[in-house]
Amino acid sequence: MDKWLYNSPIFEFDQNKPLIRQHSAWKGHAKFAYDLVQFMKPKKIVELGTHYGFSFFCFCQSVKDHKLSTECFAVDTWQGDLHSGMYSNEVFDTVSEVIQNHYQKEAKMLRCPFDEAIQNFEEDSIDILHIDGFHTIEAVLHDYTTWLPKVAKEGIVLIHDTEVKIRDFGVYKFWDAIKQQYPSFEFTHSHGLGVLFPKGCSEKFKNVINDQKNLKSHYSKE
Asked: What is the CA radius of gyration of the chain?
């Protein structure tokens, strides 16, 4: 039986770009992302909204360390938005540099709007979809609805910022509704991360869901 393992990874991008971690709202989920990839061994990971790449590089690091054949795609315009603020090409250049130095085999960048990138993926092909784009309820609902056909059977949708309840952030409203419909669990630390199984849940992940109390206790300490 597959067993969930708790690792203590070394993230290579920390070596020359420590500010990526310092500026990330995702840093409390780094080890979970790493362990998730090791456990699931996905064929394809797609991230919608990458910014400086912290979460994306956590996925890539696990793929690299465990010598998986997983394809990792980062989708972003790298121009910013009203929530993250608008930014210069420095962000894109930083992500490109980290990939060049550490994750050439694992990572692919698609610099375009999410709705444009979707044509690059076949239906039922994405094992892990990470949604972390514009955070209004309309935006997250649109991203989820348009990309759901691309998610594989027993695939996972990760949704960040499920605990942010300021300004016009509406992810928490979307999460509160969608988690009632499908198997799921969530972390409330580091702005919240929802883990959703909208197309069925494998037996090994049913065991993970049943053990979610221990997972939450472990990863909330990060």
From this structure: 16
Q: pLDDT (tens digit, 9 = 90+) per residue, 24-39? A: 889 999 999 999 999 9
Q: Each residue of 160-198: pLDDT tens digit?
A: 999 888 777 888 999 999 999 999 999 999 999 999 999
> Nearest Cα to 97, choosing from 189, 193, 19, 175?
19
| DSSP three-state, residue 62 | helix
Q: How far apart are CA 86 and CA 78, in angstroms?
A: 9
Q: Taking the complete model, does pTM exceed 0.90, yes or no? A: yes
Cβ atoms of 119 and 152 within 8 Å: the answer is no
Q: Taking phi first (over 0 means left), then psi (-120 to 50 degrees means alpha), and beta for anything else, what does residue 78 get?
A: left
Tell me how crowded residue 202 is: count the other CB atoms within 10 A of its CB.
Answer: 14
DSSP per-residue codes, 19-59: HHHHT-TTGGGHHHHHHHHHHH--SEEEEE--TT-HHHHHH
3-class secondary-structure state, position 185: strand
Domains plus CATH for the chain? 13-219 (3.40.50.150)
CA dist 164 and 153 (Å) reads 29
Cβ-based neighbour number of residue 198 at 10 Å: 18
Residues with Cβ < 8 Å from 97, sequence gap 6 or more?
17
